[in-house]
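Figure 2 data, in text form.
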Amino acid sequence: MASLADIRARLQAQDNKKTSASFGDKAVFPQWNIQEGQTAALRFLPDGNEKNPYFWVERAMIKLPFAGVKGQSDSKMTIVQVPCMEMWNETCPVLTEVRPWFKDKSLEEMGRKYWKKRSYIYQGFVRDNPLEKTEELPENPIRRFIISPQIFALIKAALLDPEVEDLPTDFVLGRDFRVTKTSKGGFADYSTSSWSMKTSALTAEEQAAIEKYHLVDLSTFLPKKPGEVELKVIKEMFEASVDGQPFDNDKWGQYYRPAGVAAATADAADAETFETPKAAAPKAAPDADPVVEPDEATAVAATPVVTTAEPNARAQDILALIRNRNKTDKAA
């Protein structure tokens, strides 16, 4: 049962969500802002949701570009982000339309534009922070990480190594992940990032922070699942975007809207808005998957549900599940 403090925190977070933009909060560590040649050491923690077998959640968003905003003569090209239904293992109306485009070379580039952008949400400590002198640090040292597919592939590779016996999130036998930023062909590159060779226990201060702030259910940082009405709106916006039309705020604004555009109705405070942090992320090198692009600088804040998690629970089971899933993916 949630404590009174938890209930108050949830209600306060909901009020804040209605009165402020839901992006770019200080909890998100912007590793994409570190300088070339620098390294940030991250210590991932378990998901507060014990039903999640992993210590991350996958997020999939679709960017819909519009030729400005209807009724605004000085508006420029604008982007609206919407959730992809494949996050919930359901059919996505946009990807259903876009998938056949990749069979036609003339439509392939357009298909990439509308394909889902994956990112992975983690939580943990920043143990070595190159941005410490320039970043406004939050009171709660448990940070949120928005990880790109390129970095995720490196994280996953080590988990699939049969010689790895303990989860890197283990409070005693865990290890840090070192995010190193370089460049390749003029693009930001993180391919030299890696797990630390040494294990290390959480410090007394880190354990105290977990005791005080608790671990968050990572699924609360995913966007709200679209219902029947929202799916219809997404389909209409997609068709209008492909046709080169401007964004119709009067028609769609209470459901989804671009950054910096106020909703047209009084109910808009409850609508989901997906925006990009002010600090733009450097363009990352293309992934091996031709239709997936890193998009680690797009964070969606949500009302956290605080829970606790056992530090050493199910380590072998989780590692086995990750490895078995990888075998299944290859067989498919």
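Caption note: The first helix runs from residue 4 to 19.
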